[in-house]
Amino acid sequence: MPEKSQLIVGLEAGTSKVCAVVGELGANDALNIIAIGQSRSRGVRKGEIVDPAVAEDDIRNAIVEAEQMADVEIRSVFLGTSGAHIRGFTNRGVHPVVSADREITDDDVQDVVKNAKAINLPAENNIIHAIRQHFIVDGHGDVKSPIGLLGARLEVDLHVVHGSTNRLQNSIRAVKSLGIVVEDVVFNGLASSLATLSADQKELGALVLDIGGGVTDYAVYSSGVIKHTGVLAVGGDHITSDLAIGLKVPLGRAEQLKIEHGAAVVDGSVAGKIIELPSEVGLPARQVNLEHLRRIMSLRCEEILELIAQDLDQAGLLPWLGAGVVLCGGGARIPQIEQLATQVFGVPATLGRANTISGLKSALDQPEFAAGIGLVKFGSMQARRPAGRSFITDTVRDVWKVILRR
Question: In terms of CB atoms within 10 Å, which of 15, 38, 322, 374 comes out highest?
Answer without folding.
Answer: 374
